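INFO  loader      accepted 1 record
INFO  loader      residues=105
INFO  predictor   begin
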Amino acid sequence: MDNVNYASGLTPPEYKCSLCGKTGVKLWRPYQTMCPDLFCAECAAKDQGKDISTMDAKGLRHDGRVPTDTIGWLVPAVPDEEGTGYWGYTSVPAEGVEWWQALSK
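INFO  predictor   done
INFO  writer      dumping tokens
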């Protein structure tokens, strides 16, 4: 994957949904995978059998409990800046979180 410059707000060319090919949007990946398939919100919801109708612009789903950015077992796919992989779910730096949340859903 190409390097990622969080400040640019752009996504690398390889950052696309594995099912529908959508680019330039928030993507999710399976939890704890090295070379994951990536899913846009709609494909993630179908794959996981989850309702995303309450999802806000930052990618948070509000279902009456604590807001979450996960969709079933899928977590936000935030690439590291070197383009070598994806941050662990609880290890994403603030700049990466802001980059991901600013993407379209």
